[in-house]
């Protein structure tokens, strides 16, 4: 992955199931000069969502000279064909089947457009501007409602033969485990995501000192664990054990310098991260594999994907 000197104005877009966020970087470097967001309202279908993407970009108020030279870096849920800029299928975006996202944006804005998996965009952002700065071998997992991931080896994003690499949430961890959102059993996402944590709390009868009777968020479970809630402690330890086991497999495979954890579950705090580390090291074939591997939280949070859009353009032009 070659880094080019920042010159071209960049528009970064993060297309999510709930929100569309956009930012304008006039000099190809942060901070953004302007930003905008729109509700995705995915149930209205692809044409309506595409209109809102255009509306978010228009709201950035990009000067005319910049429009003539800018490029767009957009992250979208996958799987997608990064080379052709086609979203093959986005489960959380109804009607998004073989949507030619790159071509549609090029026709509307008359500029270069680079399309990437949203989790890959996040790892690009952390590599270039966040917790991955200075490292050349990185694994990142985003632990939210689901689990996404991305891998950088020798300063290059690992995409695989067909652009589908990096689905780290779907690493099999427990072959007879709970059913994952994808329909398979025992994937990491079914054991360590925010959704999995909420399910395990519910299965154990709820938090002892619940603040509400609704679904417990990862942050609420973490707060309850810090207060000594036995259900919260048990559930987070189960999630940490599964995550650590998966990380051990990734360490064996990629020998990274840094493992970056983002998302709401990762914000559970110190005890959770320490449990993850203990589980990972206990699962390694030899302690030597863990030497020099740092497990650290994301520095950019929700901005990782937007800054990843900037990095995507920088490393593609």
Q: Can you describe this structure?
A:
This protein has 317 residues and is an alpha/beta fold. The protein folds into two domains: 10-124 and 303-314, ATPase, nucleotide binding domain (Nucleotidyltransferase, domain 5, 2-Layer Sandwich); 135-298, ATPase, nucleotide binding domain (Nucleotidyltransferase, domain 5), CATH 3.30.420. The chain is built from ten helices and 13 strands. The protein has helices spanning 46-58, 64-69, 101-109, 118-129, 189-192, 194-203, 218-226, 230-254, 270-283, 304-314, and strands spanning 10-15, 19-25, 34-39, 71-76, 80-81, 86-89, 97-99, 112-117, 138-143, 147-153, 156-157, 258-262, 294-297. The strands form three sheets. A five-stranded mixed β-sheet has the order 3-2-1-4-8, sandwiched between helices. Strand 12 (258-262), helix 9 and strand 13 (294-297) form a beta-alpha-beta unit. The chain is globular and about 60 Å long.
Percent helix = 25-40%
Which CATH class of the largest domain? Alpha Beta
Number of helices: 10
Number of DSSP E strands = 13
State the CATH topology of the largest domain.
Nucleotidyltransferase, domain 5
- How far is the N terminus from the C terminus? 11 Å
The SSE order reads EEEHHEEEEHEHEEEHHHHEHEH
| CATH superfamily (homologous) name of the largest domain | ATPase, nucleotide binding domain
- Averaged pLDDT, please? 91
Which architecture of the largest domain per CATH? 2-Layer Sandwich
């Amino acid at each position: 992955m070659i880094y080019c000197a920042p010159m071209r104005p960049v528009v970064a877009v993060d297309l999510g199931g709930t929100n569309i966020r956009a930012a304008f970087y006039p000099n190809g470097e942060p901070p953004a000069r302007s930003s905008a967001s729109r509700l995705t309202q995915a149930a209205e279908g692809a044409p309506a969502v595409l209109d809102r993407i255009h509306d978010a970009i228009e709201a950035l108020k990009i000067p005319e000279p910049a429009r003539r030279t800018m490029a767009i870096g957009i992250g979208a849920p996958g799987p997608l064909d990064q080379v052709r800029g086609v979203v093959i299928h986005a489960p959380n975006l109804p009607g998004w089947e073989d949507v030619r996202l790159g071509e549609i944006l090029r026709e509307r804005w008359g500029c270069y457009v680079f399309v990437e998996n949203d989790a890959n965009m996040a790892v690009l952002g952390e590599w270039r501007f966040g917790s991955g700065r200075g490292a050349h071998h990185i694994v990142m997992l985003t632990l939210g409602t689901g689990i996404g991931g991305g891998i950088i080896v020798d300063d290059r994003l690992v995409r695989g033969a067909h652009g589908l690499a990096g689905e780290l949430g779907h690493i099999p961890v427990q072959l007879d485990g709970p059913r994952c959102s994808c329909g398979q059993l025992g994937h990491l996402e079914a054991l360590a995501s925010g959704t999995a944590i909420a399910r395990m709390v519910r299965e154990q009868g709820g938090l002892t000192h619940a603040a509400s009777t609704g679904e417990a968020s990862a942050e609420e479970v973490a707060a309850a664990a810090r207060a000594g809630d036995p259900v919260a402690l048990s559930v987070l330890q189960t999630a940490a054990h599964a995550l650590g086991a998966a990380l051990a497999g990734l360490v064996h495979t990629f020998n990274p310098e840094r493992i970056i954890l983002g998302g709401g579950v990762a914000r559970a705090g110190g005890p959770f991260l320490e449990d993850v580390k203990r589980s990972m090291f206990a699962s390694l074939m030899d302690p030597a594999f863990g030497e020099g591997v740092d497990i650290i939280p994301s520095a950019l949070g929700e901005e990782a994907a937007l800054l990843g859009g900037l990095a995507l353009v920088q490393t593609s032009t």
